[in-house]
User: Which sequence fits this backbone?
């Protein structure tokens, strides 16, 4: 066959175009690719199937369920008394758009519960213990350009290497699954390392510290670890750019030579005048953009959020943030949702943090394990100081494997979260667990080795070794002892001491029914009187903490939750399982400074069963209460033994007798009215009202977002009838689904459906119950 010069020219041009298209595709790859979609999933009834079967590249998984992440291995009922444990598998086919012999490819699982094994193209590349910290694997050697397969085996059964105690005796649940995000990272062979994979003490990745902190002049020290896996020396330029609110603040660059198959650390020191400091009231965040160039080509880039701040303690062990004395009022939080366990979307994580901040809190104890990066992002953004914890609760295994797991967890936790301004201290302690001194000494040393310098703190529930002593209130009551000269925090309070017969108060002298009525464990459906008892316990115990030398306290717990050992829900949350508030939430809101917003809440449903002593929570200095427009009283805050340290005690109004109608409260500061609140006696419900919980983040499609959808029985005035407890039938249209596996019933007048949003935001919800109907609610 003859080929003319004209055709040869045409074919050569087409070949040139094809080659350049391929080159462009490689040059424009996404350096960090979200890896959450298009997984296949199955969970095993028996574990007799060999790993070789499901890990093979050519295994046919078409019969498995198609899922996206975050994902839970099992949809659980509302009351979880037989949580699923076992072995589950995930598989995914994926494309690598570059030549792996010239690039670096990393797989990251933000969490995989609890013992994981990973195969790439049939080759076992990782075995990892621990379900709360990331699993990161260099898979460059195992992938091909083009089609590849990853297979992941997860086992969330009881594990003596990771602890904690077995599920049947555990006070929370460890739900299975790839329940956070997954990522595929691609870079050149000269790249910024990953802080966890680098395994460098106080190094790896990008590490930001603050040698000097003040509003006038602050210093930001940046240490960047760059690896050269090429077989020749490379000259690199590293450009560090600091941005605030999208605007460039300062930029520095340096040129270095990196030896072949070697690495180096590049250090830069920035001086920022009139720096915007991070604090709970002003959570200012900067962005550091780190770029690595070889010649004119950008070969790697990382963006790191940071906030300039300094935590210090005075001689009385009181906390100062950037030189300002600050008391931390906080809560504990378990990270689960009903039905989907740990598989919360990033938006759902933010909504949880937003409610905490709006509840009057500036502090979170992340008990009892490392929580989601998305939740910590929200803490950084909203201004919530945190104590960051390794996994640990009432379990110590005297083996080298267990200790090494704990040591590794401490190192990896710090490497993951060290640049976060929200982190005050590292709880490298096994909560409520007797630990040998040498074990605690090693964990404490890891904190200071991984994060050298001043104003860095370890903490633990024993007052040996650690920099900060965490003590639950019930332990203070039961085992009083002289405190050592170190900062002191009340790590848990308000629940156990009012619930247990050995909690330190007088519960052992009470009959069980009265003990239950007076405890802090109250469901929203338990009625006003018991919800007010809970609120009083919170007030009493918080005020008691303020009479100690504590620089912080954290109530147990923010949200109701399920637990492995007990057949019912733990109801000490100031919000219920579905994130609806109880009266105790309003008490804490009222402790806000007025500069953060006016608070006025009437803690009453005002019906025939309502107590005639009406509590009003407010941060004003005077409140007037009216019943059907008749003045009941104008009052200053309560004054008694349980208010002496409160910034804003509640107001208690005594109403002579019940009269249906309207309670109206007006609040005043310095004689000026600032707020109004109204509660009306509920009449017979006439319709159903639907709304969703946005809490700062609207529902989002394509990310497995889950949102609470509330359906309330309301009367002609729109007042919720709290006696309504009927089953609600819900109709959905569009790309949304209900996650509740059980019948949906109203609790204290409000039913809740957990709705997962699909790939498009085009759904609608309507509801009916007996003769009540709702309008259509559209997303």
Assistant:
């Amino acid at each position: 066959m003859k080929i003319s010069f004209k055709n040869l020219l045409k074919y050569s041009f087409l070949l040139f175009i094809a080659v350049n298209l391929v080159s462009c595709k490689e040059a424009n790859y996404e350096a960090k690719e979200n890896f959450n979609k298009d997984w296949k999933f199955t969970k095993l009834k028996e574990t007799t199937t060999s790993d070789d079967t499901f890990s093979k590249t050519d295994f046919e998984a078409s019969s498995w369920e198609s899922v996206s992440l975050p994902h839970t291995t099992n949809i659980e009922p509302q009351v979880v008394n037989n949580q699923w444990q076992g072995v589950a598998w995930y598989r995914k086919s994926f494309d690598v758009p570059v030549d792996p012999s010239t690039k670096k490819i990393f797989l990251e699982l933000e969490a995989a519960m609890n013992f994981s094994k990973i195969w790439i193209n049939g080759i076992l590349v990782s075995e990892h213990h621990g379900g709360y910290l990331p699993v990161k694997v260099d898979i460059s050697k195992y992938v091909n350009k083009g089609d590849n397969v990853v297979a992941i085996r997860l086992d969330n059964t009881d594990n003596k290497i990771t602890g904690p105690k077995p599920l049947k005796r555990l006070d929370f649940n460890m739900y299975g699954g790839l329940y956070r995000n997954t990522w595929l990272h691609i870079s050149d062979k000269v790249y910024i390392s990953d802080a966890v994979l680098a395994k460098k003490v106080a190094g790896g990745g990008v590490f930001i510290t603050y040698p000097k902190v003040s509003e006038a002049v602050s210093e930001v020290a940046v240490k960047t670890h760059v690896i050269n896996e090429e077989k020749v020396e490379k000259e690199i330029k590293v450009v560090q750019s600091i941005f605030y609110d999208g605007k460039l603040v300062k930029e520095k660059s340096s040129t270095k030579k990196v030896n072949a198959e070697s690495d180096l650390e590049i250090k830069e020191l920035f001086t920022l005048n009139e720096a915007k400091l991070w604090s709970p009231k002003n959570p200012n965040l900067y962005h550091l953009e780190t770029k690595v160039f070889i010649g004119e080509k950008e070969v790697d880039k990382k963006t790191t959020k940071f906030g300039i701040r300094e935590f210090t303690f005075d001689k009385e062990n009181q906390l100062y943030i950037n030189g300002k004395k600050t008391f931390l009022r906080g809560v504990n939080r378990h990270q689960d949702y009903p039905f989907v366990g740990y598989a919360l979307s990033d938006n759902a994580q933010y909504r949880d943090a937003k409610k905490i901040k709006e509840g009057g809190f500036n502090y979170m104890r992340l008990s009892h394990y490392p929580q989601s990066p998305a939740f910590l992002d929200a803490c950084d953004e909203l201004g919530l100081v945190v104590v960051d914890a390794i996994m640990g609760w009432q379990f110590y295994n005297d083996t080298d494997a267990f200790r090494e797991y704990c040591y590794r967890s401490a190192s990896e936790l710090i490497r993951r979260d060290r640049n976060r301004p929200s982190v005050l201290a590292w709880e490298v302690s096994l909560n409520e667990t007797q630990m040998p001194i040498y074990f605690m000494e090693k964990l404490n040393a890891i904190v200071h080795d991984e994060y050298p310098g001043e104003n860095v703190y370890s903490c633990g529930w024993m007052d040996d070794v650690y920099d900060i002593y965490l003590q639950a209130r019930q332990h203070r009551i039961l085992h009083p002892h002289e405190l050592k000269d170190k900062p002191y925090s009340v790590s848990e309070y308000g629940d156990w001491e009012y619930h247990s017969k050995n909690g330190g108060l007088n519960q052992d002298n009470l009959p069980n029914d009265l003990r239950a009525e007076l405890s802090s464990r109250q469901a929203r459906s338990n009625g006003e009187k018991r919800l007010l008892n809970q609120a009083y316990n919170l007030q009493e115990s918080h005020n008691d903490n303020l009479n100690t030398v504590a620089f912080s306290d954290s109530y147990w717990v923010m949200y109701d939750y399920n637990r492995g050992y007990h057949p019912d829900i733990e109801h000490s949350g100031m919000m219920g399982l579905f994130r609806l508030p109880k009266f105790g939430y309003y008490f804490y809101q009222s402790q806000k400074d007025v500069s953060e917003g006016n608070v006025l809440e009437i803690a009453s449903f005002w019906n025939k069963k309502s107590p005639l002593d009406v509590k009003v929570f407010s941060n004003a200095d005077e409140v007037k209460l009216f019943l059907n427009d008749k003045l009941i009283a104008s009052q200053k805050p309560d004054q008694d033994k349980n208010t002496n340290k409160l910034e804003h005690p509640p107001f208690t109004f005594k109403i002579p007798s019940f009269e249906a109608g309207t309670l109206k409260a007006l609040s005043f500061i310095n004689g000026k009215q600032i707020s109004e609140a109204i509660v009306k006696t509920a009449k017979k419900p006439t319709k159903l009202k639907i709304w969703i919980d946005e809490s700062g983040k609207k529902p989002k499609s394509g990310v497995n977002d889950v949102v609470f959808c509330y359906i309330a029985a309301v009367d002609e005035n729109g007042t919720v009838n709290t006696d309504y407890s009927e089953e609600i039938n819900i109709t959905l249209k569009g790309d949304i689904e209900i996650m509740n596996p059980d019948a949906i019933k109203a609790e204290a007048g409000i039913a809740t459906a957990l709705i997962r949003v699909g790939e498009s935001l085009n759904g609608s919800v309507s509801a009916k119950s007996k003769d009540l109907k709702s309008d259509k609610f559209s997303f």
Summary: Residues 327-589 form a domain with the TIM Barrel fold (CATH 3.20.20.80). The first helix runs from residue 5 to 27.
